[in-house]
Amino acid sequence: MNIAEGYKRRRYKKDYVKFLVMAHGSEAEMETALELCVRFKYVDEEQGRKLIAEYDEIGRMLSSLIEKIDGA
Q: For residue range 3-24, what is the model confidence (pLDDT) as tens digits?
């Protein structure tokens, strides 16, 4: 949702980046929640590790996009 809201404000670079950073934070929270689910055996370890890897990739993509837009 943060990405969509930020995209609508893409004319305003600071706002767009702010929403992308929030999305990146949400990604990190989800990755942590998945780690806990694996640790407490709420999900199968193999499936949990796959999901964690996918979220990790999403985090890298968000970081790359933020750097590209922000010019940092």
A: 888 888 888 889 999 999 999 9
Q: Are 56 and 24 in contact (CB under 8 A)?
A: no
State the amino acid at position 38 in one-letter form.
V
CA distance between the termini of the chain: 24
Residue type, 59: G
Contact 62, 16 (CB under 8 A): no
**CA-based nearest residue to 25, from 41, 1, 46:** 1
d(CA 46, CA 67): 32
Residues 21/27/28/31 CA torsion (nearest 10 deg): -170
Q: What is the pTM of this model?
A: 0.84
Nearest to 52 by CA among 70, 27, 71, 69: 27
